[in-house]
Design a protein that fits this description.
The chain is α+β, with helices and mostly antiparallel strands. It has one domain. About 25% of the residues lie in helices and about 45% in strands. Strands 1-2-3-4-5 form a five-stranded antiparallel sheet, covered by helices on one side. Strand 3 and strand 4 form a beta hairpin. Helix 1 packs antiparallel against helix 2. The two termini are about 20 Å apart. About 15% of the residues are buried. The model has no long low-confidence stretch (mean pLDDT about 90).
């Protein structure tokens, strides 16, 4: 995704997928919900959700799921991806 090259690089490096969509929702005054939608080499889609607190410079894992027409399957978290992504996002706030 050309608009977010660094996040696309992190998605490729840690999750071995191509960034399809990035959504940032303002939840509260200092809280943001980050949703990363990505696709793996086999055309399966996944989402990874993190909550950022810009004031505390902290984050929480919300979920990592495979997205299919019939099922939503919970997946393990990737803490290295979370730290790389949040470090990048905090550097831009």
């Amino acid at each position: 995704m050309k608009k977010y090259p660094r996040i696309a690089e992190l998605t490729k490096q840690y999750l071995e997928g191509n960034l399809e969509k990035l959504t940032i929702e303002y939840d509260k005054h200092d809280t943001f919900i980050i949703k990363v939608l990505y696709e793996d080499p086999y055309d399966f889609k996944f989402d990874y959700d993190i909550e950022l607190n810009s004031k505390k410079r902290d984050f929480s894992f919300l979920g990592h799921h495979s997205m299919s027409v019939l099922h939503r399957i919970n997946l393990d978290r990737d803490k290295q991806f979370e730290h790389a992504l949040t470090n990048y996002l905090f550097s831009t706030i």
